Amino acid sequence: MLHDDMNHLDHMCRKLGIANPWQDGLEILPFDKHGWFDECSIQGLLEAREELVNIKFILELGSWIGKSTRFLADISELVVAVDHWQGSAEHQDTSREDVVIRLPTLYQQFMSNCRPKSNKILPLKMSTSAAFELFRRKGLQGTFDLIYVDAAHDRESVLHDLTHSMRMISTDGVICGDDWNWWGKEAPVRREVESFARMNKLGITTNGDFWRLKNRR
Predict the structure, then answer these.
(1) Domain positions in the chain
(2) What global pTM score does this model have?
(3) Pairing of strands 169-177, 210-214
(4) Selecting from 3.40.1160.10, 3.30.160.20, 1.10.3720.10, 3.40.50.150, what CATH number does the domain 58-214 have?
């Protein structure tokens, strides 16, 4: 457990056995507002905050350059943002010029965009698999009040992230995410969330691309 009388960022760094990433000396890039985080997700997250009353720790899986991360920092005390900052498979499409042009500096741009809120954001530059294994070894099961799932969008990756999120969420916490309608009829996120919900007897609420699992246990 983390202690209320300590700085949450520094304590989490010590808990995980890592250095404070904000001391890396990266050159600060001009602010970039690019991202897909929209009003539907904002509304869904605000409703979750109202229901939970106090969201202390948030785990974000997939952060891109920080548009969602900055909002999550505004509604919590600490956001642990997990991303390898290499882009997912769909980001490698060379026809997506607005995406491909950003790939070489994704992490640097994230750190630049989020630096004003650096006291409430802990970036972990690694895959979700590596992050969940680190959390398991360090005893963080049940730590997070809200987990926002928005990393790789193929069905295998979504199932992996949902399964491990269930082990890290607090008893009354919320697991939610983005891209419910992504990829049209294929909708890999939707299909996997629906399958996972059936297997675990969970309800689902949606708003645009935002989805949320409900009635956990």
Answers:
(1) 58-214
(2) 0.93
(3) antiparallel
(4) 3.40.50.150
